Structures are given as structure tokens and as C-alpha cells.
Amino acid sequence: MGCSISVEVKEQEIGFDTQSQQRPFESIELQKYKLKKKYGRIREVSIVLEQDKYKQSHEIRHLVPQLEIEANSILKSRKQSHERDIN
User: Fold this and answer.
1) Which of the residues 12, 38, 86, 87 could staple to 2 if both were Cys, CB 3.0 to 4.6 A apart?
2) How many domains does the structure of the chain reveal?
3) Which domain of life is it from (predicted)?
4) 63 domain residue, yes or no
5) Does residue 20 sit within a domain?
6) Please, are residues 46 and 29 in contact by the beta-carbon 8 Å criterion?
7) Do the beta carbons of residue 78 and residue 35 sit within 8 Å?
């Protein structure tokens, strides 16, 4: 394939705010999601998610593989006619 994907994950817990009645949230930030094609262009996507710490987080565990699938799909669909793979 003609692209490489690297993901850096930064996790930060936001402290409980005593002034509000909200429960603490866990903040997960995916930074520098780079899509690099073989001809040198780089696309970067930053995604910030906040999820209630007291709920199940099974969807977070599957997020990175899903992003990779979507990113590859986007790259394939955006290729110019002269960039298409020769089969």
C-alpha cells in the first residue's frame, strides 16, 4: 500500500470540579494522526474525545482501528486518476 499511519495517544484525566455537579470525565486525545502517501503529502487529523468515566468504554478500544480503516478508505477515494494503482 502507499501510505503509513502513525498515531500518538495522549490521555489526561480532568479533575473533579467542586463548583459544578458534573462527574469527572476522562479525556482522550489522539494527536498527529498522519496519513503519508508515497509521493510525500501528509494529512494530519486531531481528534479529542471526552467520555464519562463511569460508563463502559468499549467503543474507545475500537476507535483507532476504525480510524485506520476510514483513513485508508479516504486516501483511496481521493486519489487522482493519474495516481490510481495499476492492477
Assistant:
1) 38
2) 1
3) Eukaryota
4) yes
5) yes
6) yes
7) no
Give the model's pLDDT for residue 77.
73
Please name the residues in contact with 36: beta carbons below 8 A apart, sequence gap of 6 or more: 3, 4, 5, 42
In a domain, 68, yes or no: yes
Cell (9 digits) for 71: 483513513
Chain centre distance of CA 42 = 15
pLDDT tens digits, the chain, 87 residues: what are they?
Answer: 456 666 665 555 555 555 555 555 555 555 555 555 555 555 555 555 555 555 554 445 555 666 667 777 777 776 655 555 554
**Contact (Cβ atoms closer than 8 angstroms) between residue 24 and residue 14:** yes
* Domain membership flag for residue 41: yes
Segments of 1-87 assigned E as strands: 3-13, 25-37, 42-52
Note down the domain range covering 8: 3-80
State the CB neighbour count (10 A cutoff) for residue 64. Answer: 14
What pLDDT is stored for residue 49 in this prediction?
57
